[in-house]
Design goal:
By secondary structure, the chain is an alpha+beta fold. 49% of the residues lie in helices and 16% in strands. The strands form five sheets. The protein has a four-stranded antiparallel β-sheet with strand order 14-3-16-15. The model is unreliable at 1-37 (pLDDT under 50).
Length: 631
């Protein structure tokens, strides 16, 4: 029976049907029947209810949006790490509050408007680009929603938007706020500064055993060894099972000769051209060339620089104008010129400044490359057979290593690796196949549990097993002494540098000149002119720029430099606050952005008030089942 099922599964018809089945679960969720027994509501606001299917659909839509931003489909673990569950819960609660308010206000929507909204949904269009009844029915059937439920859902969303638009759309920020914000963003400051690096505090001596032990105990969690896992994995790609030695010389030679164009680089020529206003001017220039003038001399007479006359380096087939191609490739020697050519943009004279002859890579040069390519092609043809044979071996009781060896695949064993692909000695494993997915799944399974293979690209597979788990643990001081000493000294240096910087800042605030203080410690001052709050600098960093704007003209500030290893001591010399314009693109853009944010804030406050007034309840068990079912 098992063999019969496997053989049937190899049929392309069955694979397509299975693929569609998986897709329908992965994209549209699962039947509501699995939620029976845990309640039919995930969220309720007043009398408005959100079902598990509606909650799951909202989650899937958000995952799809974020996945497009990252360029890859997020796993469940990645989505949770990004906090998508909490984001979706917040959205669902807000929408439910708006729905409840709509119900209480007796808001409605005409049937014609609702029909237009549904008909315009691109998800329901057929191959002709118009609304398709069958597509509409099939998609709703896959998601487990009736047409009535979907229409109610769309009607709620459309009615909800009426409240949203009434509160936030078209909101205009007050002119006084816009003036203050414009001046805030465009205020400019000029300041002198010095960079205080660690050299000014000297070398910090090593700590005593007591000081080191005290520091270690206070920061023990920092030095905790993470959980490690011993992992065995087997990659299956065409190149992993290819056998170049099995490819005959005759096959390699035949492939080379049948694709000789692939190894041929056509002749290339660097072409220059002189354009002329009319044929008479071009013929006159041609006469000068015949009389002994050079191409460059005529170019100078025409007021053309070398870059003006250079057309580029081309194969004959890539020259933009066929007439120019024929003329340029008819020139017999490098440096030669053409007759007058009637080009697409008028008469021209051409010069070929360089000729690169056609080259053909010899058979001996490329034969091993061809042999490897042919071996991979043969391996691709049997890759699925190797996959099935490996799976059969595992089903028959073979270990991962035994099954891999039978198929001439090479199992790899990693003795210890943490979630970040780091080994106990601190090295990062950069050659793990599908590293992110492999480690995420390996740390989410138990010892000797056979897992489904991970896809490598579009055709490869990766099997793995966890062979051992080394739990996280606190390390003893002697295990990490060197690192602890370095961290302690860095901390003491930072404290000493901060104290020294504060001392110098106090002196300048009491009237000493920054340049004099700088000279005393062997440093020179520098100046930044007309800096805005949005200014970025690789040396000063964001903290220093922010500090420059925390006081009036003459303000003295001390801030951490970019990278955190230095301090910036500065004094503001000039403050310039512009008058706000009454119009202009910059003010319009600022007005649009601020008005939108303020409108959204008003909407958020209104929704929060609704939630407080109507009451919100949440069923975490139903929510968890809604998100985990089907994965």
């Amino acid at each position: 029976m098992l063999d019969a099922l496997r053989n049937s599964a190899k049929s392309w018809v069955v694979k397509v049907l299975l693929g569609l089945l998986v897709l329908s679960f992965g994209v549209w969720g699962v039947s509501g029947t699995i939620f029976q027994g845990v309640g039919s509501t995930v969220v309720s606001v007043g009398e408005t209810r959100v079902t598990p299917i509606e909650y799951r659909l909202a989650y899937d839509r958000q995952v799809a949006i974020v996945s497009r931003q990252f360029g890859t489909r997020l796993t469940t673990e990645q989505a949770r790490a990004l906090g998508l569950e909490n984001q979706v819960l917040g959205q669902v609660v807000s929408n439910a509050a708006l729905d409840e308010q709509s119900r209480r206000m007796n808001l409605g929507l005409s049937k014609d408007r609702l029909a237009t909204i549904i008909a315009d949904d691109p998800a329901f269009r057929g191959i002709n680009g118009r609304f398709d009844r069958n597509t509409f029915a099939n998609l709703l059937r896959n998601v487990g929603m009736t047409e009535e439920d979907f229409i109610v859902s769309q009607e709620s969303a459309a009615i909800r938007s009426q409240i949203v638009e009434a509160v936030s759309d078209g909101y205009q920020a007050p002119a006084t706020i816009m003036k203050a914000l414009y001046q805030f963003e465009n205020e400019e400051r000029t300041f002198d500064y010095i960079v205080l690096n660690r050299d000014i505090v000297g070398e910090i001596p090593d700590p005593s055993d007591t000081d080191l032990q005290t520091y270690f105990e206070a920061n023990k969690a920092t030095y905790r060894a993470p959980e490690y896992r011993k992992i065995a994995y087997v990659p299956l790609k065409a190149e992993d099972i290819s056998d170049p030695a099995a490819i005959s010389d005759a096959s390699v030679r035949a492939d080379y000769e049948s694709r000789i164009d692939r190894y041929t680089t056509p002749e290339q020529r660097t072409i220059e051209q002189l354009n002329f206003a009319d044929s008479d001017a071009a013929i006159a220039a041609l006469g000068k060339l015949a009389g002994g003038a050079t191409f460059d001399e005529i170019a100078t007479e025409e007021g053309k620089s070398p870059s003006d006359i250079r057309l580029g380096t081309f194969e004959k087939s890539t020259v933009p104008d066929p007439a120019l191609a024929d003329a340029a490739f008819a020139i017999e020697e490098q440096g030669g010129t053409s007759d007058v050519v009637d080009g697409s943009f008028g008469p021209v004279i051409l010069r070929v400044s360089e000729i690169m002859p056609e080259t053909i890579r010899g058979f001996d040069e490329v034969k091993e490359e061809i042999r490897s390519e042919l071996a991979i092609v043969e391996a691709e043809a049997i890759l699925l057979d190797v996959h099935d044979a490996y799976e059969d071996s595992r089903a028959g009781g073979d270990t991962l290593q035994e099954a891999a060896t039978k198929q001439k695949m090479t199992p790899v064993i990693i003795d210890a690796v943490d979630r970040a692909a780091r080994t106990p000695n601190g090295d990062i494993l950069t050659d793990l196949p599908e590293s992110q997915t492999l480690l995420a799944q390996a740390f989410d399974t138990e010892i000797n549990v056979e897992s489904a293979p991970i896809n490598i690209g579009s055709e490869g597979f990766l099997w793995f097993e966890v062979l051992d788990i080394i739990p996280a643990r606190d390390q003893a001081l002697d295990e990490v002494r060197t690192r602890v000493v370095e961290d302690w000294k860095n901390e003491q240096t930072a404290k000493a540098l901060g104290a020294r910087g504060t001392e110098l800042k106090d002196r300048i605030e009491k009237g000493e000149e920054l340049t004099a203080v700088a000279a005393e410690i062997g440093l020179a001052t520098d100046t930044k002119y007309n800096v805005k709050r949005s200014y970025t600098d690789a040396v000063l960093g964001a903290s220093a720029i922010e500090a420059a704007f925390t006081g009036p003209d003459g303000h003295v500030a001390l801030a951490e430099a970019e990278g955190g290893t230095s301090q910036i001591l500065m004094k503001v010399n000039q403050v310039s606050t512009p008058d706000a314009p009454t119009s202009g693109p910059q003010l319009d853009n600022l007005n649009t952005a601020v008005s939108r944010r303020m409108g959204d804030d008003l909407l958020g406050q209104m929704v929060a008030l609704m939630q407080s007034e109507f009451g919100v309840s949440y069923n975490p068990t139903a929510a968890e089942l809604a998100l985990t079912a089907g994965y």
